[in-house]
Each structure stands twice: as structure tokens, then as C-alpha cells.
Hints:
The protein is of the alpha+beta class. It folds into 2 domains: 29-104 and 243-427, Beta-lactamase, CATH 3.40.710; 120-238, Methane Monooxygenase Hydroxylase, Chain G, domain 1 (Up-down Bundle). The chain is built from 11 helices and 18 strands.
Amino acid sequence: MRSRIRLTALAVVFALLLVPQTGAAQGLVRVEPEEVGMSSERLDRLSLALDTMVDEGRLAGAVTIVVRRGKIAYREGIGWRDVEAEAPMPSDGIFRIASQTKALASVGVMLLQEEGKLLITDPVGKYLPAFAETTVAEPNDDGGYDVVPARRPVTIRDLLTHTAGISYGMGLLGARGPVADAWEEAGITGWYFADRDETVGDTMSRLAELPMDAHPGEQWIYGYNTDILGAMIEKISGQTLGEFLTERLFEPLGMNDTHFFLPDGKLGRLATVYSSVGDGSSFERAPDPGHMVGQGHYVEGPRKAFSAGAGLLSTATDYATFLQMMLNGGELDGTRILSRKTVESMLSDHLGGIPFRPGQGFGLVFSITHDPAAAGLPGSAGEFGWGGAYHSTYWADPKEEMVVVYLTQIIPAIGLDDQQKVRSLVYQAIVD
């Protein structure tokens, strides 16, 4: 009887394999590193370096994935998902990816442009009337500031490139700026939204009334830019940002573990947040639930604010899948998300001389490397990437046909050189 059941089950599986699979990418495949020009022995050095940081008590756990030539050469979870529970970090651990959300939401903007529903050169006020006229806080000779009208309207492109003059409400470069007090009084500071019992659109409408840090198009200032874009996507699409991105991006690419709020049954894979203590030689568990530095409201919270700037949960494999699509020029396994020309635009430097970082420019949401030597670490011209507040990082290298995603959960991360070592040890493993 058991053999008959087994044969029947095999027949069903075989029949399912014969059914054409459409509508979603098939996913990244794991291979031996040598098949894609990397060394297994040299990649072991990466595992050893991260294991050492765990053993030294500087890092709780992390997941790293390296994809080369469209195939997974390395994927490993090290350390602990939850130290106190003695739960090891699985390779499919789910992380708060914070600002890595920005790239995914910005693709949503480009999808709408491809459908003719907007142009990134449009003023934001065309879709969100609250932003039709904005103000700027200009420092005066008395040590204070004067609120003056912005010299021109904020455009969608300004938001995509973080040149709209909009910070996270804490002033330029994270310091106490002239507008910080006004923003704090309005309850709009920092990137965390999961605890808000209102939509991001409601929050952004209040934000539009506050004085910005600089005039549009004049400085690179990191802030709520992408959250404004998320509110715009919701307004144009008539869907929540979660619904829109799931339907248009996550499901087509098979990114089944990418969510704004954690579904039932996945809590056992959510990485715990830790914070460096003192000089960074140890860490402690972050508060529960906490705010920006804490376990968060991703499981039990209002579930109303879909933050395009920092709201998503994901896995290293899901995010690498997204980056591989971008590296492929907008397509993965026959599933096309964006046109090649749209991707080319996103990966071009749009700053036009606005100062940024040595050797880098900024595209439509990604940093773009022009001169890797300026950073003093291995890399390639044309590389694009970014990271997240919980100390995660990622990059895609078109020259080497490689994607790297490194996810961990430590905020603040004091004295850690893990990101730099990941970069160095990944590149030293290339042997082709």
C-alpha cells in the first residue's frame, strides 16, 4: 500500500512538472562556486571571518549571499537569529531591511512611468497637492532661520535622487538643523513608521507644511523622499503600497518572503535586533517593541503605514533576486519587470555635479560607483548599491556579473568592520 501511495504521489509531481509555469520567475539556483568562477576554499575565508565576529561577541548573526552569473555561489547564515533562545540563524532568515526598501519602492515609481501614469520630471504637487508649494528654512545672520518659499517645485526626480532638500527632520547630515524643532513638534522625525496608526499619506501631508532643509535640486540630503513617493504610488494606483508592490514586483519575481508586516507562521524566522554596547566589543538585545532601535511593530502593530523609505522585511535570497533582475536589465527567467532603458536610467548618475561621496554619484535611488579606488576597497566602475539602518548592505557589480547581499540586525553598530570585510573577502574569492 505504501509503495502504491508513493508511486501515486510521484505521478502527481511528474504531472505538475509538465504543466507550463507562467507569470513568475523560477528563482535563483545554487551551484558549486567553481561553476561560476569562484573558489569554495576562498569563500570559506568569508565564513571564518564572520564566525569569528560572532565568537568574539561583536555580532549576533548574519546572512550573506553571493550570486555570480545568475547563480548562487554562496549563501550562509552564521551566528544566531535569537541569541537568548539559542536559535541559529537560518539562511532564509527574515530581516528588517530598512532603507533597502527604497530601491523596491522606486521601481514602483518607474513602473507607473512605463504605464504613462506619470513622468519623473513632473512636480510632485501634480499628484499630491500638499506639495504644490513648499518652504525652506534659510539660516539668517542672527543664528536662526527665515522660512522662505522654495525656489521651484519639488519633482519626482528630486525625490528619487534625494535632492529635494528634505531630511529626516533632524537637520543636515543628521545634526540638529534649523528645522529640527518644527519637525519634532509635528511628530515627524526618523525613518520608523510601523508603529503609526495612520497612513504614510496622512503623515506626508503634514510633512509638506514644514520647512525643508534646502531648495530643490541644490543639495543631496537623505530623508523622507521615498516615503513621499510611496504616498504618491498609493494615490495613483488606488492600492496600498504593500498591495501594489506585491502584485507588480514581489509575486512576479517569486519574492515570497518580502512583506511590510510579518504574516502568520513566519515569526520563527525573524531575526532579533541587537545594539552594540560601549566600544562595540559586545551587544545587548534591543527593547521590545521599541521604536527605531527595537524589535519593532512588524508582528503586532497597527499595520497602516506602508513605509516606502524603510518599512520592508525580506531575506537575502529575495533581495538578491530583485538585484539580479536589475543586473539583467529588468528581466529574470523570462519575467520582465522593467524595460532595459528604464533600468539604464535608474543606474545612471543624476546628480549633475551636486556633491556626494568620493568616487560615487547617485542614480534613481542607488549609489553609482565611478571610481572604486576612491573607496580603497575592491569594486568595479558601474557598481550600484546601498544599505539599511540595521547595518545591512548590498551591491551589484555589472562587470563581474555579481550580486552581494549582507543582512544583519545590529543598531547602532559600533566598531564593526564586517561590511568592509565582506566586500574584500567576496572579491578575493573570484578566480576566473
